[in-house]
């Protein structure tokens, strides 16, 4: 029986009272579609929550999870191991660029961010640079909801209720520049110079105090902000100049979203010292995250007495056997179906489709890269976010699931989408936009 009492579940990132008045309930999923409670087939335009890159209910992943839970339902990874954890880590490391060869498992993108931040501080301390404790994030950045993540993150609504955050954190300016870059196709032309703000921050605080810079290669949760041409390479150069670790948060961009490669780092030709990832690592089926470290980071920890714990950090469910099985099967599915390559091939068609909405009522900007796009709407006077929410809600009632952040609609479908479904997606979104006040 469907639940009639919606009070017990305190929903995350949700206007709970508003939801209870007109619930949006999903009861099943397959391939590109959800089934709503009333039986409506809902085209998944945001891969669940940026995570179902291979589509829903894929047989290989389902079977792997079923087998794993029936064989080894749990195994600790504190001073113990199991084969699936080592296999999953090896598979992920082989997908990561350059010498990002060491995978530390956790359970979410939030935990991956906090893991990477702790790793960065400990790395410098072991090297004798104990003064390096400062982090540099970016305005409008999103790195999960742990205290570390919201401290280096730059979305004000995620921070304002929670006090002073971690000390010793500064922020780069965001890269959203609609005056110069509105309706850009792919990477915006203007904005490389925004990376030079890091030089000013370094001068302000002294480079010997800074442990790491953390950014999303493409800022996703804030409304899809692809990096300006040359911006990430400039950040890498400045970090190298001052001995600062560079962390890429690839929770959204990882596992094919940018098209052609597993990670945005390889797509953009910039190698960070640590990559955080989650979401597509298991196709969203079982919670899992990871921090992937380069050789020099890992080897710094492998010193001192052999019997000593090198990195006193971890989670009960780090490398959970069922999550590892799901990850291995997910990576098999990506490879066997060529989904990263498929995303790259579809990207130009997707780009044309999202930009076809230019000129519709209230559309003030469109952004895209790979198989992700955003349509930014003009905010209503005195009521920001209401127009975006209305479009999101009406689209769902019409059989289309989108992601909304403020007045920006994010589109990030499973990589199995076809051209007819791309046409359907933007046809439905266009119809709702034409009929929105």
Automatic annotation (TrEMBL):
<dbReference type="GO" id="GO:0009102">
    <property type="term" value="P:biotin biosynthetic process"/>
</dbReference>
<dbReference type="GO" id="GO:0004015">
    <property type="term" value="F:adenosylmethionine-8-amino-7-oxononanoate transaminase activity"/>
</dbReference>
<dbReference type="InterPro" id="IPR049704">
    <property type="entry name" value="Aminotrans_3_PPA_site"/>
</dbReference>
<protein>
    <submittedName>
        <fullName>Aspartate aminotransferase family protein</fullName>
    </submittedName>
</protein>
<dbReference type="Pfam" id="PF00202">
    <property type="entry name" value="Aminotran_3"/>
</dbReference>
<dbReference type="InterPro" id="IPR015421">
    <property type="entry name" value="PyrdxlP-dep_Trfase_major"/>
</dbReference>
<dbReference type="GO" id="GO:0030170">
    <property type="term" value="F:pyridoxal phosphate binding"/>
</dbReference>
<keyword id="KW-0808">Transferase</keyword>
<dbReference type="InterPro" id="IPR015422">
    <property type="entry name" value="PyrdxlP-dep_Trfase_small"/>
</dbReference>
<dbReference type="InterPro" id="IPR015424">
    <property type="entry name" value="PyrdxlP-dep_Trfase"/>
</dbReference>
<dbReference type="InterPro" id="IPR005814">
    <property type="entry name" value="Aminotrans_3"/>
</dbReference>
<comment type="similarity">
    <text>Belongs to the class-III pyridoxal-phosphate-dependent aminotransferase family.</text>
</comment>
<keyword id="KW-0663">Pyridoxal phosphate</keyword>
<keyword id="KW-0032">Aminotransferase</keyword>
């Amino acid at each position: 029986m469907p639940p009639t009492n919606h009070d017990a579940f305190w929903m995350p990132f949700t206007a709970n009272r508003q939801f209870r008045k007109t619930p949006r309930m999903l009861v099943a999923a397959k391939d590109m579609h959800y089934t709503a409670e009333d039986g409506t087939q809902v085209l998944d335009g945001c891969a669940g929550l940026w995570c179902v890159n291979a589509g829903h209910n894929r047989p290989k992943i389902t079977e792997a999870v079923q087998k794993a839970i029936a064989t080894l339902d749990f195994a600790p990874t504190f001073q113990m191991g199991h084969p699936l954890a080592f296999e999953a880590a090896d598979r992920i490391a082989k997908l990561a660029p350059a010498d990002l060869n060491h995978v530390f498992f956790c359970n979410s993108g939030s935990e991956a961010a906090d893991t990477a931040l702790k790793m960065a501080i400990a790395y410098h301390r072991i090297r004798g640079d104990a003064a390096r404790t400062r982090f540099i994030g970016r305005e409008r950045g999103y790195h999960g909801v742990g205290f570390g993540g919201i401290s280096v993150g730059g979305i004000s609504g995620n921070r304002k209720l929670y006090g002073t955050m971690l000390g010793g954190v500064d922020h780069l300016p965001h890269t959203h520049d609609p005056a110069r870059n509105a309706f850009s196709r792919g990477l915006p032309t203007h904005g490389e110079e925004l990376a030079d703000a890091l030089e000013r921050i370094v001068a302000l605080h002294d480079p010997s105090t800074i442990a790491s810079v953390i950014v999303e290669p493409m800022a996703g949760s804030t409304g899809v902000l692809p990096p300006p041409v040359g911006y990430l390479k400039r950040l890498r150069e400045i970090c190298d100049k001052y001995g600062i670790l560079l962390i890429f948060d690839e929770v959204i961009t990882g596992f094919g979203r940018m098209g052609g490669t597993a990670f945005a780092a390889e797509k953009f030709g910039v190698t960070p010292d640590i990559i955080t990832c989650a979401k597509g690592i298991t196709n969203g089926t079982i919670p899992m995250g990871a921090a992937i470290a380069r050789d020099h980071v890992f080897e710094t920890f492998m010193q001192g007495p052999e019997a000593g714990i090198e990195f006193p950090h971890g989670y009960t469910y780090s490398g959970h056997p069922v999550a590892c099985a799901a990850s291995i099967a997910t990576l098999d599915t990506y490879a066997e179906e060529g989904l990263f390559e498929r995303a790259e091939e579809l990207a130009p068609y997707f780009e044309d489709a999202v930009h076809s909405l230019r000129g519709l009522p209230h559309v003030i900007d469109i952004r895209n890269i790979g198989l992700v796009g955003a349509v930014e709407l003009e905010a209503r006077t005195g009521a920001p976010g209401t127009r975006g929410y209305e479009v999101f809600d009406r689209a769902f009632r019409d059989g289309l699931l989108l992601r909304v952040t403020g007045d920006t609609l994010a589109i990030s479908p499973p990589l199995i989408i076809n051209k007819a479904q791309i046409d359907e997606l933007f046809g439905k979104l266009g119809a709702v936009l034409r009929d929105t006040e």
